[in-house]
Every structure is written in structure tokens, then in C-alpha cells.
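Milestone 3.1: sequence recovery, worked example.
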């Protein structure tokens, strides 16, 4: 039997490879292995970046932590002692301070200034253009900032100091990180001499002291020597390699999130591919009825036939897996290039680590999925009676008529289960409700798959009315072919149905969420403008509030400020202090319990999240304290709010007068909310405010429309990314349509030749196959859109809250584009089989059995 299997593989190599590649099991495997390679690449890239930051560092000295405060900060005295230790070739103090850049428009943007090490070997960056600063009036910028801001060598660069003054430096060079494409410290960066850096901040302490060893001194020896010489228990001294490992351990746990998210879509692609594999092997078994029956006649057992089909599936899956492995490596590299194109300096550090585990994963996924999908066709092969070898192959009726009762029962059971889950999901909370709606979607998908063969006839007859009228004979033949084998047509459409279900679900949920956020911003944040600091740690000055409040165009200007407090047994949290009179006019969060029309001194409104985490309730009194003071506050309301760009009400709201008691040292504001007088247009209001803040470089101005626009952009970026990922599953499904019709061409060779002999032209034969592909695509797309939009409606109902009622928004334009793209792509997938069918000789075709 093994010889027969090998002979069959040689005879059908082209067809099997075509089925594996056309249904894109290789693409599905590429998705899975790509996620794995990308996950490992993140770790490799991160280690390379950290190693670049610590290059030539043999010893690292940092201050120990006592609670949240560093004790005995590193200073120039410690640095001098380290430099005098035997075995130290060079030592540098590392210090980075906030240094907002003032652009040509007079507005400030966040940036960080770093002290330039005197030792060239301890500089974790490379000079690109010009030189490093040699005087206290010179600066070197990172290349990306210089390019984006339009700075050229010799131009002045203005920087804000801690007291709000501006200092001017001359740009003398540009640099890049030691590791091209590094994502560490991706913000704006400046290099200054240490003395110039202290002009920006009076703090002379270092965050770290690094040392380079002399020749012949290893890292461990140097660390021991520094530890003995300094003899300070409050300092942490470790080797450069240990410092890299420590940073990697602190950073790495956050890195696999993207790869896990990527893997979710890989599972969808695998599910679609499994459907197409099942359909493909089912067709192959049907076409080989006489061959399998002949094997039974000459002594092959059912077990041998079953094993033979699975062996073909395993061989096909193995080849596809290897192709998918290479494709996954390429996909991971491509994603890194795309990410790098928008990263630091447009450079990409591409890493493609391929481990033994990744190779085994690729083989296991491809082979196991292919074999699992071929189990049913393999079992069907064992049911072929030996007498079938004596029959002429026919396309006769399928078993769909005989199992319609069973299908109807399964469909009804799954539909009822889905309905029940939907009902329970709508009554449950948001978290449990979404999970139940997910199970509901799976049940409804199962019902649609079970009912597929029963729906083929009615759907094709309905959809086929137009092509029958417009295309005549080809349209009639296409409808007849599509309904001839309902199980095959339904299985082919099922893969596309799954892909379009996910597309419709994601698109509708994102559109609904985006529209609902815009409505929530209008309802809860009815301001015209919001002023924020371009550098978050630097608050807006109180004088700015007075200036804005005195404008004739302004009706109300209310500030807000965040503060970290201790809520007694509940622990530490961040609260937001606002002008209590602004509640109800400029701030209208959704009230869940209590009353929130204003806030007075010693009154506290808490968010639903804080209430859930602490168990606090309305009218409960609790101690609120900082190191500067304490206030007993009463909870007056529990609210729910929507957060977005420049909008964050925090976990609790209190009056500004309470902030003065808790922390009298607080100066300035995080935000200033502005409402214009009636009759003042947005353009007129913006002009007045911009003129008023022209002398405050830290101030950024955003209108309510700007806030909604930024929120919409975030949703659109998310949608574009998700479309790109799920698009692969749709491509696999479309390839499955082409594959099914290609195999059907072989199955209908004699029939096509007879039609040609009766007068059907080659163009009409090609049109027949293309119309059939469109009918199959329309059936799958229609079912997918209905399931996806319906599930999105259920999710919107479950996810709705008092803070953000979800207004169902169906993006007809985007869904129409997805439908049109699918319908237009389906005929393209059949170009090759249609061309093959049309070029077939009539005489040769009639000679087929």
C-alpha cells in the first residue's frame, strides 16, 4: 500500500500542491509562525538595544531605593571617587533632564536633554552630521528631531528651563542611537555638556554612574574593586552584563502582547484554511471514486484506504508548512520594516530568530490542521464500495437530501442555543455579557454551517435571477452548477462567510464605538476649548487662567489638576481637582448613584472603577491624605465617564479648595476648560485664545472638534490594522473558491466538452465559471455580513453604559466596499480554471470517462 500511496503522490503532485497553496494553508502557517518569530524578534531586538545603551560599560552604579525615594543620590563626589579607583579606565555620570524645545511657532514640545560623556567609548550613540558640543552654548540633536523640526547646523535651538525661562543653544551636530532603529528613548533628545545641562536644572545628582575597565580587568573584578572602595550599602554596583539582564527582565514581560494579539488572527486564518482543506479533499475523494473502489477490489482494506488519504494530507501539509515557515519569517521581517519606517529615524533593525521550537510549530500546525480537516473525507473514502469501480463517474445527486432532517435538527438546536446565549448575555454585565455574545456568535456560525446545504437552493435561485436575465445561458448554467452539489457549494462559501463575519463584526463595532465616543464627548465634556501643557510634568501657570477668564469672548474658564493621595485602607490613588462650579456646566459625567450637580469643599465624587476596587459607597466618609495634609471627605456620587485624548477625569473628583488643603505647594493646572459666550464662533474664539496665550510656549490649544477628530483617528487606525490582518483570511477563502472551481473543471471535463459541441462558446464557458464564483461569493458574504452586523448589535447593547450609551452605527460604505471587493475578486480567482476549461479540446474532453 505504501507504493500505491507514493505513486499517487507522484501522479497528483501538482494538484495536491495547488490545493495546499491555493487554499493558503501555507499563508495560515505563515501567520502563526510569523507571530512566533515576531515575538522572539522583539526580545532579541530589545536585548540588542539595551546592549547598545550599555556598550563598553563594565560596571554600573545606581542608588538604592528606600520606599519610593532614592537615598544618597549619586553626585560629583561619588563620580570623582570612582574615577580614582584602580582598574577604572573611565567613568561617567548619566543624567537626563526635561528640556522642552521651543519651535519656530513659539510653542513648546516635550524633549529630554542628556549630559555628553567625555569618554567617547561610553557614548551610546553615533554621530551622523557635524560634531558634538564643545562649549556650554552648543547642542547636538537626534537626527529625527532635527529632520522633522527643520533644524539645520548653525541654527539656534531654544530650550525651556525649570523656571520657565528660555535658553538658546547653537546646533552643531546630529546623532542617532547606537543600535539603528532603536525604540528606546524615541522622544526628542538633546546632547549638552554637563555644565550646560545644569543651566536647565539645579539638581546635580546622577541617575547612574557607568565605568569602563582598564585592559586586563574583567567586569567582575572591577565591580568588586568599586564595591570595596566605596563601601556604601545604599549603592547598587553590578556588571554591565547584569545591568542589561535586569533592564531586560523589567521590560520583557510587556513585549509579547502584540504577538499574542497577532496570533488571534492566525487562529482565524487557520479556521478558514481548515474549511477549504476539508472541501478540497472532499472533492478529491469524490473524483477518485473509481480509483479507490479499484484498490478495494484488489485487496486494500478500509484502514489502508483511510491511511492513504491521510498520508496524502500529511505530505501536502508538510510541504505547505515549510513554505509557510519561510513565509512567516518574511512576514515578521516585513512587519518590522513597516514598524521601523515610522520609528526612530525611519530605520528598521530587523531580527528573524528561527528556533527549533518555531520550526516544529510550523510543521505541527500545517500537518495537524491539514490532517484534521481531511479526516471526514478520508472516512468517506472508506465508504466507497468496490462495485463503484464498474460504474461510470457521474455527478449525480448528493446525500444532502437524505440528511436534511438531521441538518435541520442541528441547525435548530444551535440557533436556539445562540438565541439563549444572546438573551442571557444582554442581561449579564459587560464583561460576562461580551463573553456570552462571543459564544452566541459561535453557535450561530455553527447553525449557519449546518444549514448551508439547505440554504444553497433558495439563496442561489434568488441571487441568480439577475445573471439569468443578463447573461442568458451562462447564467442559467452557473445557477444549475452551484445548486447541483449543495454541500460542496455551502462548504466553499462557508470559509468566506467566516472571514466576512469577522470583517463585519470588527468594522461595525469600531464604527459604533467611534460614533458613541463622539456623542459622549459632546454630552459629558461640553466645552469649546481645552488648554493643556505641552510638557505634562510642567503645569500651566495660574496667571494664564486669569488671562483667559478676562477675555470678552469667554463665558467660563475652569482649571483642573491631578493629585496622588492616600485613601486610608483603600490605598493610594490619583484624583482630579476641579472647580466645583464647573460640574454640570463643563463636566457632566454619567451619575450612577448619588447627586453630582456641583462639588463643595470636603466632597468627593468617585468613579465606578474606584468604587468597585475599594467598596466605597455614597455618603461614606473616608480620610484623604498626602504628606502635606489630611481631609475627611464624604462620597457624594459615583460616576462613569468616557476617556479620550486630553480627557481624563481620573478615578475621583474633588473641589480645588480641597486641593489647597491637601497640598498647598501645588502650583499651576493640568488643564483649563473654556466655554465661549453665546454667539462666539469657534474660529473667533480660537483667535482670541491664541492671542492671549502667545506668550506661554507650554500651552496647547484643542477644540472640542479636535478632541473628537483625534478620537476618530485612533479608531480608524485600529480599523485599518485589523482589516489588514483579517484580510488574509478573506484571501484564503477566495483562493478556496478558485480551488474548488478548478477541481470542478476537471470533474466536468466531459460535460463541458458536450456543451461546447452543442454550441456553447469558449467565452460563455468562462462566463459560466465566473458567474458561479460570484454566486458562491455573494452567498458567503451575505451570510457573513448578517451574522457580523447582528453580533455587533448584541455587543453594542451589552457594552453600553450610563457613561457611554452605544448608538448602533452600521458603516454601510465600508461594508459595501468589503462586499464589492469580495465579489469582484471572486472572478479573478477563477481566471486560471476558466481559461483551462475553455482551452480544453472538445474531442479530448468527450473521450473522458
Amino acid at each position: 500500500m505504501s507504493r500505491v500511496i507514493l505513486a499517487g503522490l507522484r501522479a497528483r503532485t501538482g494538484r495536491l500542491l495547488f490545493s495546499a497553496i491555493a487554499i493558503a494553508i501555507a499563508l495560515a502557517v505563515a501567520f502563526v509562525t510569523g507571530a512566533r518569530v515576531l515575538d522572539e524578534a522583539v526580545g532579541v531586538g530589545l536585548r540588542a538595544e539595551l546592549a547598545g545603551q550599555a556598550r563598553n560599560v563594565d560596571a554600573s552604579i545606581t542608588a538604592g531605593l528606600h520606599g519610593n525615594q532614592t537615598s544618597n543620590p549619586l553626585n560629583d563626589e561619588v563620580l570623582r571617587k570612582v574615577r580614582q579607583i584602580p582598574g577604572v579606565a573611565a567613568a561617567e555620570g548619566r543624567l537626563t533632564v526635561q528640556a522642552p524645545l521651543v519651535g519656530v511657532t513659539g510653542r513648546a514640545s516635550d524633549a529630554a536633554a542628556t549630559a555628553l560623556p567625555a569618554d567617547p567609548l561610553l557614548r551610546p550613540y553615533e554621530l551622523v552630521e557635524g560634531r558634538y558640543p564643545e562649549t556650554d552654548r552648543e547642542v547636538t540633536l537626534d537626527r529625527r528631531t532635527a529632520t522633522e523640526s527643520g533644524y539645520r547646523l548653525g541654527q539656534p535651538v531654544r530650550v525651556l528651563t525649570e523656571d520657565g525661562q528660555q535658553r538658546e543653544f547653537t546646533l552643531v551636530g546630529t546623532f542617532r542611537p547606537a543600535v539603528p532603529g532603536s525604540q528606546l528613548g524615541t522622544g526628542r533628545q538633546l546632547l549638552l555638556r554637563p555644565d550646560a545641562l545644569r543651566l536647565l536644572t539645579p539638581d546635580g545628582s546622577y541617575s547612574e554612574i557607568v565605568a569602563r575597565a582598564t585592559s586586563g580587568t574583567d567586569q567582575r573584578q572591577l565591580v568588586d574593586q568599586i564595591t570595596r572602595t566605596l563601601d556604601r550599602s545604599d549603592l547598587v554596583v553590578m556588571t554591565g552584563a547584569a545591568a542589561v539582564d535586569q533592564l531586560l527582565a523589567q521590560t520583557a514581560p510587556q513585549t509579547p502582547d502584540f504577538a499574542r494579539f497577532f496570533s488571534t488572527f492566525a487562529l482565524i486564518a487557520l479556521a478558514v484554511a481548515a474549511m477549504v482543506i476539508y472541501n478540497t479533499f472532499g472533492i478529491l475523494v469524490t473524483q477518485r471514486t473509481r480509483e479507490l473502489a479499484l484498490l478495494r477490489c484488489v485487496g486494500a482494506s478500509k484502514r489502508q484506504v483511510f491511511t492513504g488519504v491521510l498520508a496524502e494530507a500529511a505530505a501536502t501539509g508538510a510541504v505547505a508548512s515549510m513554505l509557510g515557515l519561510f513565509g512567516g519569517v518574511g512576514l515578521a521581517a516585513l512587519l518590522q520594516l513597516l514598524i521601523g519606517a515610522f520609528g526612530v529615524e525611519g530605520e528598521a533593525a530587523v531580527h528573524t530568530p528561527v528556533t527549533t521550537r518555531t520550526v516544529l510549530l510550523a510543521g505541527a500546525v500545517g500537518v495537524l490542521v491539514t490532517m484534521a480537516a481531511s479526516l471526514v473525507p478520508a472516512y468517506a473514502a472508506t465508504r466507497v464500495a468496490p462495485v463503484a469501480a464498474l460504474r461510470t463517474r457521474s455527478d449525480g445527486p448528493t446525500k444532502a437530501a437524505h440528511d436534511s432532517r438531521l441538518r435541520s435538527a442541528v441547525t435548530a438546536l444551535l440557533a436556539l442555543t445562540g438565541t439563549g446565549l444572546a438573551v442571557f448575555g444582554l442581561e449579564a454585565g459587560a464583561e460576562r455579557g461580551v463573553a456570552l455574545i462571543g459564544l452566541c456568535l459561535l453557535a450561530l456560525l455553527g447553525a449557519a454551517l449546518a444549514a448551508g446545504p439547505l440554504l444553497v437552493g433558495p439563496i442561489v435561485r434568488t441571487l441568480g435571477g439577475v445573471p439569468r436575465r443578463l447573461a442568458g445561458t451562462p447564467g442559467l448554467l452557473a445557477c444549475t452548477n452551484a445548486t447541483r452539489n449543495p454541500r460542496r457549494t455551502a462548504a466553499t462559501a462557508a470559509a468566506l462567510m467566516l472571514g466576512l463575519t469577522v470583517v463585519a463584526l470588527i468594522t461595525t463595532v469600531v464604527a459604533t464605538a467611534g460614533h458613541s465616543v463622539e456623542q459622549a464627548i459632546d454630552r459629558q465634556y461640553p466645552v469649546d476649548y481645552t488648554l493643556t501643557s505641552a510638557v505634562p510634568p510642567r503645569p500651566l501657570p495660574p496667571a494664564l487662567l486669569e488671562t483667559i477668564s478676562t477675555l470678552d469672548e469667554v463665558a467660563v474658564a475652569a482649571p483642573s489638576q491631578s493629585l496622588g493621595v492616600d485613601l486610608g485602607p483603600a490605598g493610594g490613588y490619583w484624583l482630579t481637582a476641579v472647580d466645583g462650579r464647573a460640574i454640570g456646566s463643563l463636566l457632566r459625567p454619567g451619575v450612577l448613584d448619588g447627586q453630582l450637580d456641583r462639588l463643595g469643599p470636603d466632597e468627593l465624587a468617585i468613579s465606578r472603577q474606584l468604587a468597585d476596587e475599594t467598596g466605597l459607597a455614597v455618603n461614606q466618609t473616608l480620610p484623604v491624605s498626602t504628606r502635606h495634609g489630611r481631609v475627611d471627605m464624604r462620597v457624594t456620587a459615583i460616576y462613569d465617564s468616557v476617556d479620550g485624548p486630553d480627557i481624563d477625569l481620573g478615578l475621583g473628583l474633588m473641589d480645588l479648595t480641597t486641593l489647597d488643603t491637601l497640598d498647598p505647594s501645588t502650583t499651576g493646572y493640568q488643564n483649563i476648560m473654556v466655554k465661549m459666550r453665546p454667539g462666539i464662533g469657534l474660529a473667533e474664539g480660537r483667535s482670541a485664545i491664541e492671542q492671549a496665550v502667545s506668550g506661554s510656549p507650554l500651552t496647547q490649544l484643542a477644540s472640542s472638534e479636535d478632541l473628537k477628530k483625534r478620537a476618530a483617528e485612533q479608531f480608524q487606525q485600529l480599523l485599518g490594522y485589523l482589516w489588514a490582518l483579517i484580510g488574509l483570511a478573506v484571501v484564503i477563502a477566495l483562493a478556496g473558491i478558485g480551488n474548488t472551481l478548478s477541481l470542478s473543471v476537471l470533474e466536468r471535463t466531459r460535460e463541458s466538452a458536450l456543451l461546447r459541441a452543442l454550441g456553447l462558446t469558449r467565452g460563455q464557458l468562462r462566463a459560466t465559471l465566473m458567474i458561479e464564483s460570484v454566486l458562491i461569493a455573494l452567498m458567503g458574504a451575505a451570510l457573513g455580513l448578517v451574522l457580523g452586523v447582528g453580533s455587533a448589535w448584541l455587543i453594542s447593547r451589552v457594552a453600553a453604559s450610563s457613561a457611554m450609551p452605544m448608538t448602533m452605527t452600521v458603516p454601510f460604505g465600508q461594508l459595501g466596499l468589503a462586499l464589492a471587493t469580495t465579489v469582484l475578486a471572486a472572478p479573478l480567482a477563477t481566471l486560471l480554471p476558466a481559461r483551462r476549461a475553455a482551452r480544453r479540446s472538445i474531442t479530448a474532453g468527450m473521450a473522458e470517462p
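The longest strand covers residues 554-566. Residues 12-55+247-393 form one domain.
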